[in-house]
């Protein structure tokens, strides 16, 4: 179901509205959405070719990524998770993630692996980056939480066309008519929701 959004909403107003919409989903709806999302993910040909795949641990009503992580482990894929860079402000590192990896909460209260330099996976070695988002629109634009972490991470891919393929993950209710864009925003070529795979030209 697509919800109409007034185009005059600011980015912050849009974030608030969609986060509230997402928070209204019941536990059963969240669980089923995660299961359905995995079924869509299984249809992506890129998944079967990839070795190193970046995901994230869901928070704040984000669609549940744990079914995807568990299934990818079963397929023998190597999972990495984002960690806030301790020295370079606004940057992400990606760390190897296994079932026994120690985790902690970062300054935003988001769960991430405990920083261990021996577990860092270079960005150049990652094949797919599944990205969280607050909203997406019909032009392939992604609205994040406002920190710009993923925009900075994906900028080399956007300018060169080389590197990890970014794929946005979202509930169906996070689609909106239009997102007010900024010059630093990086549009995504693919979004996956529980009901559909969306493709756009870069």
UniProtKB/TrEMBL annotation:
A Pfam family found in this protein is 5-FTHF_cyc-lig
Tell me what reaction this enzyme catalyses. (6S)-5-formyl-5,6,7,8-tetrahydrofolate + ATP = (6R)-5,10-methenyltetrahydrofolate + ADP + phosphate
Task: Please name the top-level EC class of this enzyme.
Answer: ligase
- Which terms are listed as keywords in the entry? ATP-binding, Ligase, Magnesium, Metal-binding, Nucleotide-binding
Stated EC number for the protein is 6.3.3.2
The cofactors required by this protein are: Mg(2+)
Q: Kindly list any coiled-coil regions of this protein.
A: none
Q: What Gene Ontology molecular-function terms does this entry list?
A: 5-formyltetrahydrofolate cyclo-ligase activity
The UniProt record lists the keyword Nucleotide-binding: yes
Q: Does the keyword Nucleotide-binding apply?
A: yes
Task: Give the record's family classification.
Answer: Belongs to the 5-formyltetrahydrofolate cyclo-ligase family.
Protein known as: 5-formyltetrahydrofolate cyclo-ligase
- Native source species: Vibrio rumoiensis
């Amino acid at each position: 179901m697509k919800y109409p959004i007034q185009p005059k909403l600011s980015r912050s107003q849009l974030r608030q509205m969609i986060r509230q919409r997402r928070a209204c989903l019941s536990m059963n709806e969240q669980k089923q959405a995660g299961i359905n999302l995995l079924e869509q993910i299984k249809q992506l040909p890129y998944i079967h070719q990839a070795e190193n795949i970046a995901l994230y641990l869901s928070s704040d009503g984000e669609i549940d990524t744990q079914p995807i992580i568990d299934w990818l482990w079963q397929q023998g894929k190597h999972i990495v998770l984002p960690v806030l860079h301790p020295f370079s402000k606004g940057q992400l590192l990606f760390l190897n993630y296994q079932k026994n990896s120690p985790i902690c909460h970062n300054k935003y209260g988001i769960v991430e692996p405990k920083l261990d330099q021996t577990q860092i996976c270079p960005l150049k070695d990652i094949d797919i980056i599944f990205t969280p988002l607050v909203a997406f629109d019909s032009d392939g634009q992604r609205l994040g939480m406002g920190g710009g972490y993923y925009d900075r991470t994906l900028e080399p891919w956007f300018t060169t066309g080389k590197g990890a393929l970014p794929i946005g993950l979202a509930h169906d209710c996070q689609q909106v008519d239009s997102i007010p864009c900024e010059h630093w925003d990086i549009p995504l070529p693919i979004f996956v929701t529980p009901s559909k795979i969306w493709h756009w030209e870069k």
